[in-house]
């Protein structure tokens, strides 16, 4: 079984409401989809959204990286040589982690189909069920409280609250949400690099002194400010999670060496796919560092692949933030991973189990 062709498509699904963070506003899932065709008629699926403010990837750069650099290296390659194929993806060009992730996911899907088993089983096995939090994007205090209450009523027991623009308003948001759902849901704060180290410490101490104890604080400072991240970690009680500060294994090693964070958020789109993400998880496991599996605002293709990795490394990937597909008005992916509110269930079909993608528009070759 060899790789015969790599085709690309565009998938667009409007969100229920605009998704706002300290870095950007998103109104729709817009994924470049990879269809990896094999010479025996199978298709491996992968995908990547454009997250220029985070990874530097745009739709145009994803398409060019795959069509012009990554794809040509893989045509004719045996599907069963997964490690070598993944190495070819990573070495095709510098940067472009989301483009690499899309192809890497498709390679893993085809490889698992070849072996006739769900991907998570081949990655290590596990219980094919997860629970995810849901994210409350930046909005008015009243709107965020209403969404928090609605989420709890839908069964979510963990809420990620976006903060990071104005500390005064951030405190107001968190206090109001805590008053509305405290005791019924764990609160996770995500500043998306929006605070300075001093602001982060002052804001979190204010909350902690008031008896508001979030489960974690995610990426309070700029991605490159590892000293600032370490300072925050050392001066607040709330566990600190690194997100944009860790893309690959080398950054994970340095972060752990400097004890700059308590938790690492791993996303396939940052890491360059499953292969690299698994390496980060395994590094963290050796050092006893907990991890979260996260995703971008993306479809059930990429988020589903992340779920397969999470199940296979459940001892280290102890938290999940895979709500991307649930933010959309509909799920266009038939088969594969089922995203049902806070509950995520993996299919027992080979590979990712994807059967069809509604509304996929082919991109010209």
From TrEMBL:
SUPFAM superfamilies associated with the record: Enolase C-terminal domain-like, Enolase N-terminal domain-like
Chain ranges of the Mandelate racemase/muconate lactonizing enzyme C-terminal domain: 141-239
Cofactor: Mg(2+)
Keyword terms, alphabetized: Isomerase, Magnesium, Metal-binding
Binding site residues for Mg(2+): 190, 218, 243
One Pfam family here: MR_MLE_C
UniProt: substrate binding residues: 24, 135, 160, 295, 297, 321, 323
Broad class of enzyme this protein falls into: isomerase
Keyword Isomerase: yes
Family label: Belongs to the mandelate racemase/muconate lactonizing enzyme family.
Protein name in the entry: Dipeptide epimerase
